[in-house]
Amino acid sequence: MSQVRYQSLGPLLSGEGSRAFLGLALEPGVSPRPVVLIWAPQDIAQDPELTARLRRETQRAVVFDHPHILRVHGLVTLEQGLARITEYADGETLRRVMEVTPRVPPPLAARLVADAALGVHYAHMAGNDDGSPLVHGDLRPETLIISFQGMCKVTGYGALSVAPRERGGRRVRNRRKYSAPEQLLGGREAVNIQTDVFLLGLTLYECLTGKVPFKDAKDADTATLTEALPSLPPPIPRALDAVVQKATAKRAQERYPSALALREAIVEAMGGLPETDVVAAFMNKLFPAQDEARGARAKVLELGIADVVRREGLPAPVPAQAVAPAPVPVAAATPKAVAPPPAAKAPAAAPVAPAPAPAPQAVTAAPPAVAAVPPAPVAPVAASPQVPASPPAKKSSRGARVSLVVASLALASVAAVVVSRDQLPPNLRSYLDSLSATDASEPPPEATAEALGLADAGTPDGGVDAGVTTVLELIVDPRVEAGLSDGGTLGRTPLSATLPPGRHVISLSSASLGIQTSRTLTVNPTGRTTHRVYLNKGFVTVKAPPGALVQVDGRKIGIAPIEELDLYEGFHRLLVTVDGARWQKNFQLTPSQRLVFDVDFEEPASDADAE
Fold first, then answer.
1. Contact 349, 87 (CB under 8 A)
2. Are residues 528 and 565 part of one domain?
3. Alpha carbon 551 to its chain's center
4. Which residue, of 78, 209, 411, 517, has the fewest CB within 10 Å?
5. Strand order in the sheet with 528-534
6. What is the CATH number of the domain that holds 468?
7. Domain total in the chain
């Protein structure tokens, strides 16, 4: 096998300090394929002990072959430094997803966490070289990737013990808040299988509520150690709330005994899980192919590949449609042990076509890689991979024993996790039916998005005869008071109101939630028009002199500094007072925007810095 070379194309993530770069794997006679190069920090690259540890961990992760784990290709030394090579997944972190839609629909949240649990269970069973379970210990929305093909992948394997905690005074976002009690008390040495169960439970909780666990507690560490998570609000199934509560029990022995057991409990609580194409439609609704950042990365790949093909005479990549394998039935999937590749050579994957590139995402200690066009073994995304893949082979007989265990688990769980469409909720059944009736190359129909609670465009109800009074059906999440631009009141959503056809500016407000915004909606000439609006959040940081009281929209927030206060999109009023001095600022917040107010009572209020 010839030696693979790697070419860096530029930062994968926006912002200073990004260590993940988009790149190409080059091999004579083979089409270039996209990869991600994650550069090791200088203090690791220059420390022989840390480098050796990183190399051992990477080599262990290289043999992992599971559709729900980000594939690691190896650790290489290039002119620019030491880089870990991973697959490039066309998708977004779960954190980025929740910045666009803070609350993920329960069926999809359940599916994403259940899939992540499969990958985590695989790693537990594969274990460390000493036979102990390989515990991740850093599972959170920042370390889960959701591809635009509907696959959830766990990132971080291969660099867990050397991942930086804090650098340059910057805190790694949400890492402390995503800790199990045993981690707070004993660090990484105290983690166990149930630690990962706890972290997956926290992730499911935030997906369903839109709230970072224990964020509002006076002391997040104390809350993690002593307080139970609040119950999930309706209409989230009570059975799913029970799953979250058990997964996040303070004592490890009171949680689910394995990540696979957690997954089975999620499936039972939901009565089944939606298929991969449902997740794919959800992702492509949130991040359409014409998205500016996604398109920019696709262009970088296109130009980079074209340059290499022209310069080195390599074959051009085959269009993805031509190389996509046919879906494989779940029951026919046979677990197979994967032998480690030779240590002296970087592992090569089958050539794949570049996919549209993802939008920027936060760099995390567990590799942030917006990761990968899946290599050939995991390409059949249309078939939901419900069965845990077998762990890689070991030097001893332990590998064979683990393979047998996983194979038996797979056979035992097929009947429990493969769900027919008739068993799914009615809205998801109609959603899947609409997908079946639509050409795969076309975007999902509006009814499809409505089934997931994402639709925002007007859709006429064909059951109303022409010539009748036109009616607006308005559904808003969260519920708000709706009115007209001329001051007229429509009522509290969801509502039906008789309106003349045409465009209307609808005000949306909620004093308790701090919502003051509007939408321009079109009422169709005949019948009923349904609009569904999902209001998203942005984040505000307030820096002010010690002791300053911060109020937003008349609500007392706390004493400065205030870090990452989440507010709904729209108009807000910020008031900061200290020792009789007042500083006031009116501002508008857009979805996912980050504003920083640096309050100086000596200067008049000025515009905030947007991140």
1. yes
2. no
3. 31
4. 411
5. 459-461, 528-534, 471-477, 495-498
6. 2.60.40
7. 3
The pairing of beta strand 594-598 with beta strand 609-610: antiparallel
Shared-domain flag, residues 148 and 113: yes
Length of the chain: 611
Residues 103 and 53 both lie in one domain: yes
Domain extent for 482: 456-534
288-311 pLDDT, tens digit each: 888 777 777 788 888 888 888 888
Give the residue from 534, 552, 573 where a domain finishes: 534
Closest C-alpha to 88, from 435, 364, 355, 473: 355
**Confidence check: pLDDT of 125 > 90:** yes
Model pTM above 0.85: no
- Mean pLDDT across the stretch 407-418? 35
Measured from the Cβ of residue 566, the count of other Cβ atoms closer than 10 Å reads 15
What the block records as the tokens of 572 is 């807000």
The most confident of 148-157, 371-380, 414-423, by mean pLDDT: 148-157
Mean pLDDT value of segment 355-373 = 37
**Does some domain include residue 430?**
no
Cβ-count burial of 226 within 10 angstroms (0-12 exposed, 13-18 middle, 19+ buried)?
Answer: exposed
Cis peptide bond prior to 235, omega within 30° of 0: yes
Choose one of 419, 446, 468: the last residue of a domain. Answer: 419
Residue 360 within any structural domain of the chain: yes
- By the 8 A CB rule, do 478 and 532 touch? no
Q: Which of 493, 492, 487, 491 is nearest to 505 (CA)?
A: 487
CATH number at residue 542: 2.60.40.10
Amino acid of residue 427: N
Residues 354 and 394 in one domain: yes
Chain Cα centroid distance, residue 568: 20
